[in-house]
Write a structure and sequence with these properties.
The complex is a heterodimer of chains A (247) and B (303).
Chain A (H helix, E strand, L loop, with lengths): L4 H19 L2 H20 L5 H29 L3 H6 L5 H15 L1 H15 L3 H28 L3 H17 L14 H5 L3 H12 L7 H25 L6
Helix pairs in contact in A: 1-5, 2-3, 2-6, 3-5, 3-6, 3-7, 3-8, 3-10, 7-10, 7-11, 10-11
Chain B lengths: L2 E10 L5 E11 L3 E6 L5 H8 L7 E6 L2 E2 L4 H7 E4 L11 H11 L4 H14 L15 H13 L5 E5 L7 H14 L4 E6 L2 H7 L2 E6 L2 E6 L1 H7 L4 E5 L11 E5 L5 E5 L1 H13 L5 E4 L2 H9 L10
Parallel strand pairs in B: 3-8, 3-9, 6-7, 7-8
Antiparallel strand pairs in B: 1-2, 1-4, 4-5, 9-10, 11-13, 11-14, 12-13
Chain lengths: 247, 303
């Protein structure tokens, strides 16, 4: 029998996003609340001057949180429904399963993403080069968070802890660091602490690319190096340490 | 003849717990094979290894000539499993459950839709096809999972305790379905309901503390047992003198004598002559299991 790989990826999108959104439309609201509420607060507090960075912060939060949410969703489906056991014993590979599930997290975030993209189009009016930079940074951010999410899910057996851990990681890496506003607003020594999070480097690149942060080129190169380096390390660790088949 | 073969399968978990100890057997991959054993006997470990979910510590196994360790991708084309404690995802409907599983197995959308519809009809679930799984009864949810794996092309289906927690009527309904599936595919079923194995399995394996202590048809198990007949006496009945028998007394006072054919009929004759009420039956799977495993599985029945 010839297996359709697109079907195998799409199954994950259906189960982890579309069916839940279709059967429980209320979840559509919850997907927009987190990124948009922070955006609103930052915009109001700054009298609108930080709307541009807040939009970018919202995008970072959505992409990072989506990948991290994979951790709790996979763990939930694995431990509560034994779905992963059914899939392991089927012709689906771990890559196709994870690919579909990761894509589902983005599909799940489409309502919030759509609002932020419209706002970005209106207020940032990015050039094609800026769009390329923003998209690349967000993609790297997503890959890093998916790798973290998948790796953690393979070790997790407690769903309650998984959800709590997902929320904690999202808060630590997407809400606390200066992603909704430029790092120049963070006083020393806290600005040094912010560099512990890869999202800070992502935000610096984006804020600088859109003209909200004035930093030298050397720092942007360092930001890219750190972001890609951290991404590569996390991805390697995830590939090496993640477990598809139990031992 | 297509076979499922295990050769010295051993599993020692990271906490040094030995779950399987040199399990070797061979069964034809047709009909229904029932694996019975107490909780913790190693049933789930064995199923998970055979379903390529878990690495054994030692040994090997093959399904229809495909090695589960070196040819696991090919094995996965042929098998499907409903794991122990698997549940239908609550935010999905039965139709969505079966459909998405078929997509995962690589079916096209059109084929998946057709096969999902057919499978739901076959299991009598068409009226629930678009109802959320969360609103279905326990028995119906379990049927949804059976329909899910049954809709696939899998030749070998592993069901790990599929009827645990179901009421007796739902359980019997599921037995009918499994008997039907067993006509065209091989079902490898684990259960701790001995009646279930007795009712639906063509061949039975008994697992004790990670070791396979017996395997065969019910008739073969009876034959291999040192006792072929069971005599039950009401409370306070004087037990006649016995030569080669095992006697147990239940909490309610009933006495069970298990013995071989010649002695069973001689005891029966004696009891009849004395006008004592008793029942005599061929040993059940319960009796064989009790004898082999050495621990009471369920309370002795009053007859």
């Amino acid at each position: 029998m010839k297996r359709n790989r697109l079907s195998q990826i799409f199954a994950g999108v259906l189960v982890n996003a579309i069916y839940e959104m279709k059967n429980y439309p209320i979840v559509l609201l919850s997907t927009v609340i987190s990124p948009l509420s922070l955006l609103a607060v930052i915009t109001f507090v700054s009298s609108g001057t930080l709307l541009g960075t807040a939009i970018q912060g919202g995008l970072i939060m959505i992409f990072f949180s989506s990948g991290i949410a994979l951790q709790s969703d996979l763990s939930h489906l694995k431990n509560d429904f034994k779905l992963q056991d059914m899939i392991v014993s089927s012709p689906t590979s771990s890559k196709l399963y994870m690919g579909g599930m990761a894509l589902a997290e983005i599909v799940y975030s489409i309502p919030g993403l759509a609002i932020l993209i419209i706002l970005a189009g209106i207020y940032l009016q990015p050039s094609p080069i800026q769009i390329l930079i923003l998209t690349t940074v967000l993609f790297v951010m997503f890959v890093v968070s998916v790798a973290i999410g998948f790796m953690l899910s393979t070790f997790s057996s407690d769903v309650v802890q998984s959800y709590a851990f997902s929320r904690l990681l999202s808060l630590l890496f997407a809400a606390l660091p200066p992603v909704y506003y430029p790092i120049s607003y963070v006083p020393a020594p806290f600005n040094y602490l912010a560099y512990l999070s890869p999202t800070t480097y992502a935000a610096e690149i984006m804020h600088s690319a859109t003209g909200y942060l004035d930093i030298p080129l050397s720092r942007i190169i360092v930001d890219w190096a750190v972001l890609l380096g951290v991404g590569a390390i996390i991805l390697l660790v995830a590939i090496k340490k993640s477990r598809w088949k139990d031992v | 003849m297509a076979k499922l073969e295990c050769n010295g399968l051993t599993k020692i978990y990271q906490d040094n717990r030995k779950a399987l100890d040199e399990v070797s057997f061979s069964v034809e991959t047709s009909g229904i094979f029932g694996l019975i054993g107490r909780n913790g006997a190693g049933k789930t470990t064995l199923v998970r290894i055979l379903a390529t979910e878990l690495e054994p510590t030692q040994g090997s196994a093959s399904i229809n000539g495909l090695n589960i360790l070196t040819q696991e991708d090919k094995v996965r084309e042929k098998i499907a499993i409903v794991p122990q404690e698997a549940r239908a995802i609550r935010w999905m409907t039965p139709k969505q459950t079966v459909f998405s599983y078929l997509l995962w197995r690589g079916y096209s959308m059109r084929d998946a839709k057709r096969l999902a519809d057919e499978s739901l009809i076959k299991l009598g679930l068409q009226q629930y096809a678009n109802v959320l799984n969360s609103k279905l009864s326990g028995g119906t949810k379990r049927k949804v999972l059976i329909a899910t794996v049954m809709a696939s092309e899998a030749e070998v289906i592993f069901l790990d305790e599929p009827t645990t927690g179901l009421d007796p009527i739902s359980r019997r309904e599921l037995w009918e379905i499994l008997r039907d599936i067993g006509k065209t595919r091989f079902i490898f079923l684990t259960t701790h309901y001995l009646e279930e194995a007795e009712q639906i399995a063509d061949r039975i394996g008994i697992l004790k503390d990670g070791r396979l202590v017996s395997i065969g048809t019910l008739a073969e198990l009876r034959k291999s047992s040192p006792y072929q007949y069971s005599i039950k006496l009401p409370p306070k009945t004087q037990v006649p003198p016995l030569k080669d028998a095992a006697v147990t007394v239940s909490q309610s006072g009933y006495t069970q004598i298990m013995t071989h054919e010649a002695e069973a009929f001689s005891i029966a004759r004696l009891l009849s002559e004395q006008g004592i009420k008793f029942s005599i039956t061929p040993v059940t799977l319960d009796d064989i299991f009790f004898h082999l495993v050495g621990q009471k599985v369920r309370e002795n029945h009053e007859t």
